[in-house]
């Protein structure tokens, strides 16, 4: 294990935390610990924006240092404005960050290699390497030479910046970057849920611990359901089995359900990889899954920032009504800045910022109109809700939401402006717009994943609303319950929308509780999470080259839904357990209990409290199954067998299994600047395009992701060009070498396997052997010779031109 590198990273992140602490203390001044838990992301967000913007002009270590200088200036100004951190709390919260950071260091150290199988580590490592080489942003596309990158790169930009700042090679910085963002999510979850719970009068530590568990560690109820299926009664198992295993059986085992159950319900055969394949036609991950997978995907790295957006929204929610400017600054400056980072880091999270804005501004005690100066606010503050009529109340509530929506539009416009070099003036991947009403999720598989989360939502909602329920006339209550049941059944039968039948009442009931004053920010987070999980039942991004309509949308959105919902669920669970435990502690059986003198109510309280604690315990245990099994598979088995040899070297597999190729790639990696190379194309998710991946040098064409980013025609044209370079008539090859300004031709095992006997001879004056070993030969192209063909080549050139005028 490279412990010195780990310590170097932790020292750098401690500096970021220290610089962010005064700003966090200013923004989160109503929070119990003045926002100590949010010090690190408070620093990272403006740092990322400064590096991104200056990088459009010039990028390098100097750009990153300018970002640090701006951050120092911001910390100084915040301190002068009253940002006085509680440094002991900052230190404790940094300790929480270290815990999360260390968990992922241990996991990645067990399997650190950057591999193409099953994920997109090749894509993301090539990205960070190309960023490291880039003189400006965006970098040249390492899989599509001559054109700027057509992919959001904010997460990779931050990982690269951390490595450059610490002088760490990216072969290690790749894995340390993953651990950094997991640690950010870990500490933000602790701080946000802890603050919500403490503001309700309960333990910050207990709330923070449960919130962190559900967000960063817990894995839904999928694993527990699958492992328990063989022990269920036959009638129950017949219902559960298709829901829990059907999609895996269809996708991987030709529909063999029994075989799939035998594999995934057996602990020794179980694999964490299959836990995202539950709802047909979707990919639904929880954060720990995404981080264990080890990509630098935007939806993975941005989970901590999504939760940080929730924390900033909570700062707005708790700010005094009369602090108009501060509320406006938090809303438009804070959420606007986070949304701006999402714009070039994970564009899929931009709508989430808008949704959080609507929920928070609409639910806060301060009317949305009060964000404006008083003379304008009075005109917009239509207080019809002061009347006792239901239509008046409804109109007032709809007006609040409309104004909150206007606020969300402003936040999104600010975000888009911050990310405009990418979103408006850059190269955004092509898409076909938004589609509506995709294939819907069956209720069974949906509940296999989210039963625990929605059970917490329902339990918390009932607890918060119980005084209202008790105060309602029994006849009215009965009629209301019947109407709800009829509506739910109708939604299932007539609309074939079972997920809406479950989530709809919870969303509506939760919002009514919030607006009645019975709810809190835990409910808002639960509403946000459930709303995101419902969203891709209604709309989806229509992406080219992806036939399954919800495939990418569910992957990018579901993890955000879990992140926000689990934070609310963790806070709710802590409040439910603490409140129930207190009630049980106060419970005493009266001596006259047998006399029937009204002790039934006490018994009801005791039974309800016991049931609540049991429910939360079951949800925790069910969620615990995934991390226990996943960490056992990734780390514990090797440790027990003595095979755990931890390292953070992402090139370990390359150097152990392909040492000769590693030496050739090292030689290429040492070339200054960004010379264009050519290597053989091949299938994605296999060992193809290794030279461009591990060096970041632009290659004529790489993985077929470019079909989606550019077009199938553009991808095919370049594949044809590369094939001609390696096998075609020399005049054709020379034209393509010149067109793409190729400086090095890579000939290794992939090229020999793809072209076989058709591979051309490079015994020409145009080529000189720049590097050679037993596996790889790299030819340097003498560009001046390309346009000076021999007599024989001139004949071929004339023939080529006559056919292609």
UniProtKB/TrEMBL annotation:
This is Chlor_Arch_YYY domain-containing protein. The chain crosses the membrane at residues 6-28, 35-54, 60-78, 90-110, 172-197, 209-228, 296-317, 329-350, 401-425, 446-469, 481-514, 521-541, 561-581, 602-626. The keyword Transmembrane applies. Keywords: Membrane, Transmembrane, Transmembrane helix. Signal peptide: none annotated. It comes from Haloarcula rubra. Pfam families: DUF2298. It comes from the Archaea.
């Amino acid at each position: 294990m490279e412990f010195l590198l780990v310590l170097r990273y932790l020292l750098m992140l401690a500096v970021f935390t220290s610089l962010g602490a005064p700003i966090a203390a200013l923004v989160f001044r109503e929070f119990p610990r003045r926002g100590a838990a949010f010090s690190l992301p408070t620093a990272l967000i403006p740092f990322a924006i400064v590096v991104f913007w200056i990088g459009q002009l010039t990028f390098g270590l100097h750009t990153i240092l300018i970002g640090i200088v701006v951050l120092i200036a911001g910390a100084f100004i915040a301190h002068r404005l009253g940002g006085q951190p509680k440094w002991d709390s900052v230190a404790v919260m940094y300790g929480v960050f270290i815990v999360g950071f260390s968990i992922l260091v241990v996991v990645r150290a067990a399997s650190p290699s950057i591999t193409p199988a099953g994920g997109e580590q090749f894509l993301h490592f090539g990205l960070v390497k190309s960023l490291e080489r880039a003189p400006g942003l965006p970098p040249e596309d390492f899989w599509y030479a001559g054109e700027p990158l057509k992919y959001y790169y904010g997460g990779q930009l931050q990982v690269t910046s951390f490595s450059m700042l610490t002088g760490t090679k990216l072969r290690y910085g790749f894995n340390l970057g993953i651990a950094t963002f997991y640690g950010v999510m870990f500490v933000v979850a602790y701080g946000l849920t802890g603050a919500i719970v403490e503001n309700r009068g309960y333990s910050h530590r207990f709330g923070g611990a449960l919130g962190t568990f559900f967000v960063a560690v817990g894995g839904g109820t999928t694993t527990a359901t699958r492992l328990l299926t063989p022990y269920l009664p036959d009638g129950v198992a017949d219902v559960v089995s298709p829901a829990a295993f059907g999609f895996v059986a269809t996708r991987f085992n030709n529909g063999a359900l029994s075989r799939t159950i035998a594999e995934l319900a057996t602990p020794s055969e179980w694999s964490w990889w299959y836990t995202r394949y539950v709802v047909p036609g979707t990919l639904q991950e929880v954060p720990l899954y995404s981080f264990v997978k080890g990509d630098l995907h935007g939806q993975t790295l941005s989970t901590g920032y999504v939760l940080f957006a929730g924390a900033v929204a909570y700062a707005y929610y708790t700010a005094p009504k009369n602090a108009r400017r501060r509320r406006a600054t938090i809303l438009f400056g804070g959420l606007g800045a986070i949304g701006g980072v999402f714009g070039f880091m994970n564009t899929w999270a931009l709508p989430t910022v808008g949704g959080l804005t609507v929920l928070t501004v609409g639910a806060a005690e301060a009317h949305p109109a009060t964000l404006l100066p008083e003379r304008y606010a009075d005109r917009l503050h239509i207080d019809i809700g002061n009347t006792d009529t239901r239509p008046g109340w409804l109109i007032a509530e709809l007006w609040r939401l409309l104004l909150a929506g206007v606020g969300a539009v402003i936040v999104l416009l600010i975000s888009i402006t911050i990310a405009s070099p990418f979103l408006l003036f850059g190269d955004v991947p092509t898409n076909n717009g938004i589609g509506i009403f995709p294939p819907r999720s069956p209720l069974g598989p949906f509940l296999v994943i989210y039963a625990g989360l929605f059970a917490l939502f329902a339990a918390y909602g009932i607890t918060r609303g119980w005084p209202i329920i008790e105060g309602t006339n029994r006849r009215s209550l009965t009629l209301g319950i019947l109407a709800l049941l009829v509506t739910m059944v109708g939604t299932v039968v007539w609309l074939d929308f079972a997920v809406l039948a479950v989530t709809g009442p919870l969303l509506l009931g939760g919002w009514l509780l919030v607006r009645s004053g019975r709810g809190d920010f835990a409910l808002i987070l639960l509403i946000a999470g459930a709303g995101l999980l419902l969203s891709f039942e209604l709309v989806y991004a229509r992406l080219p080259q992806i036939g399954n309509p919800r495939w990418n949308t569910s992957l990018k959105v579901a993890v955000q839904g879990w992140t926000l919902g689990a934070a609310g669920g963790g806070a709710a669970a802590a409040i439910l357990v603490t409140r129930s435990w207190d009630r049980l502690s106060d419970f005493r059986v009266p001596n006259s209990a047998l006399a029937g003198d009204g002790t039934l109510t006490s018994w009801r309280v005791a039974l309800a409290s016991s049931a609540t604690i049991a429910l939360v315990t079951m949800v925790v245990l069910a969620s615990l199954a995934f991390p226990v099994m996943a960490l056992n598979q990734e780390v514990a088995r090797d440790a027990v067998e003595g095979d755990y040899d931890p390292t953070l070297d992402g090139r370990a597999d390359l150097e152990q299994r392909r040492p000769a190729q590693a030496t050739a790639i090292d030689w290429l990696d040492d070339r200054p600047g960004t010379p264009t190379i050519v290597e053989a194309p091949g299938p994605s998710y296999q060992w193809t395009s290794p030279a461009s991946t591990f060096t970041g040098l632009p290659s004529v064409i790489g993985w077929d992701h470019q079909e989606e980013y550019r077009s199938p025609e553009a991808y095919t044209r370049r594949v044809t060009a590369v094939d001609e370079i390696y096998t075609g008539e020399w005049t054709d090859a020379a034209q393509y070498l010149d067109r793409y300004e190729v400086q090095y031709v890579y000939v290794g095992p992939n090229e020999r396997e793809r072209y076989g006997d058709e591979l051309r001879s490079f015994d020409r004056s145009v080529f000189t052997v720049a590097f050679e070993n037993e596996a790889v030969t790299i030819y340097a192209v003498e560009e001046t010779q390309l346009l000076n063909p021999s007599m024989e080549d001139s004949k071929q050139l004339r023939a080529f031109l006559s056919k292609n005028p």
